[in-house]
Design brief:
Layout (H helix, E strand, L loop, with lengths): L1 H5 L12 H5 L6 H21 L18 H11 L1 H11 L3 H20 L9 H25 L8
Helix pairs in contact: 3-6, 3-7, 4-6, 4-7, 5-6, 6-7
Length: about 160
């Protein structure tokens, strides 16, 4: 966790760290916020398994049904990962990956709040597309946290 705290800002700036914030288990703590998004995704997978909801093969899922603004926010964040990593490498600026992880976590938390997945009133076609969107977010967060050398917990 300490590593990510140091990677929140550019190495060219003076580091200011609020110990109370980075030790809190809340949305105010950027490390916890990103790790919580990853753990929340695993929680959803456990809930889906308990309800015997399985993700269909991607080739059988129509992702075009993802039209809600929150869904699109997650997709846009995911699409920007390769360019973000490349820019961070070129500029030797790992804080750019940290910023991206925070953006994806925020987009995912908003999506989670506004776009139900396992509720009975969600159409199966939409549920399947959302399950794949969640899997994309999980992979994206895991990649970013791995790049930064930070754990990607399945539970918090």
């Amino acid at each position: 966790m300490t590593r990510l705290v140091y990677l929140l800002q550019s190495i060219d700036t003076t580091q200011t760290i609020d110990i109370d914030v980075v030790s809190a288990q809340s949305a105010e703590n950027p490390v916890y916020y990103v790790q919580y998004a990853h753990a929340r995704i695993h929680s959803l997978a456990r809930q889906a398994a308990a309800r015997e909801v399985e993700r269909a093969p991607l080739s059988e899922v129509d992702l075009a049904v993802l039209v809600h603004e929150r869904e699109l926010d997650v997709l846009r964040a995911l699409a920007s990962l390769p360019d973000t990593v490349l820019a961070a490498i070129r500029a030797r600026a790992p804080h750019q990956v940290t910023g991206w992880a925070r953006e994806l976590a925020a987009a995912f938390h908003r999506f989670w709040h506004d776009c139900p997945i396992l509720r009975d009133d969600v159409d199966d076609e939409l549920r399947q597309a959302r399950l794949w969107l969640v899997e994309g977010a999980r992979v994206g967060l895991a990649i970013a946290l791995s790049i930064l050398g930070v754990s990607a917990p399945e539970r918090l």
